[in-house]
Amino acid sequence: MLAALRAFGRNATSFQLLERDFLVWRDVDASKTSEVVTTTLRDAPIAAVGYVDTGPAWVAGGEPVAREDDVHIVAERFLEAARRAGKRAAFFATEGRLVTSPRFERLLLGEQPVWDPAAWPDTVRASRSLRSQIKRAAGKRVAVRRVHAADVAAGTTLRDELDRLIRRWQATRAMAPMGFLVRVEPFTHADERRLFVAERDGQLVALLSMAPVYARNGWLFEDLLRDPAAPNGTTELLVDAGMRDIANDGSRWATLGLAPLAGPVTPLLARVRTLSTPFFNFAGLQAFKAKLRPHTWEPIWLAYPAGTAWWRALLDALTAFAGGSLLRFAWETLRRGPRPVLVAMTALLVPWTITLGLLDTARWFPEPWMQRAWVTFDALLCVALVMLISRWRGWLGTLVAMAVTADALTTLVQAITWYGPRAATITDWLLIAMVCTAPMLAAVVLWGTVARHRVSEARV
Description:
Blueprint: H1 2-8, E1 23-27, E2 35-37, E3 47-53, E4 57-61, H2 71-84, E5 88-94, E6 104-115, H3 120-126, H4 128-139, E7 142-147, H5 157-171, E8 194-200, E9 203-213, E10 218-226, H6 234-248, E11 253-255, E12 259-260, H7 267-275, H8 282-291, E13 296-305, H9 310-322, H10 326-335, H11 339-358, H12 361-364, H13 368-390, H14 394-422, H15 426-457
Parallel strand pairs: 4-5, 10-11
Antiparallel strand pairs: 1-2, 1-3, 3-4, 5-13, 6-11, 6-12, 6-13, 7-8, 8-9, 9-10
Helix pairs in contact: 4-6, 5-15, 11-13, 13-14, 14-15
């Protein structure tokens, strides 16, 4: 496959098809029989499509890796192969060639910024804010150096440090780690990549992994990971080093990849962009890339068979990113205890505490003091959660998680020994189930939050 990428890999995401999530469909000849390979990509097919099998669908990463004149026919044959296998099919992150086929409809996913690396020095000179950030990082003693495949081989000290950096960076994300085209896999075919590390006083603080886009003599700035403790400007310093390095080798094209939901997306997707900000700041990501003064923005599309509902194709693509069930991904995200979840827990706790204080004491509590104790506990818990939302404190987070766990266990015992025998209606049982389930879920979320912060706060 590497040979095919070197000849035909024009899509920004093309090199990522070598990563572990992807299977390959190979079209040995556009006029002959095609074959499906259910392993990782092989060497030098004439034409290929890298895809993820979600179960009901094959979701391709970018456009077919094929000769320019063969892209449409290879894509259409991929659709036929998927249909014969009983699968839906779609192409995620296409750059325009594919969507001109009458066999496909398209949905704008966002835009990717593009630079001419040779003009990067002029871009820096023209941007006061960019120069300021680069100088700020350098003034904080951050130094960038290029490293090679042997430097990051498994078992090396630097590789161990980078693995810890990746875990710490992922722990700062509100959502669970995703796969498909956003899996963090910076060392696949490291000898073909360009890798840069940023260090402060010898301490690793950031990583840039660049993937080649062979047919464009270009590069995708694929993985750009910054330690939470890295000084401001570290990311800009890495980008500056990468741009200048590839410019020296004659590259004339570079991108930082898709800015999802950027540009004139549909009103519904624009609404999603706004509502999802607490979990993923789409506008902030676009603003960061725009701050680096790209020379142009290219539209990126989801291409799917004509007659297919766009929402179905998009749902298949999201399933590919989730690595399987969207419900499982949502649960994994919930268990991480991102800030929006803590805010929601706190907001729900307020009316619950008020309701608890208004309940009929004789019916719902063995003794009056127990009602007062639960109301007081929940009021204090609400205050503690507000403090954690305002600023995370490890000791307080652990204390709250322990208290909520004890609350869940006590409530369960009380439900078995006292509430259960007295339940007389379906409403009673539903209330008991809610009373038991809520603190259990809260305990899971809080312990997940504690674990995530411990990773993010650990030294690299």
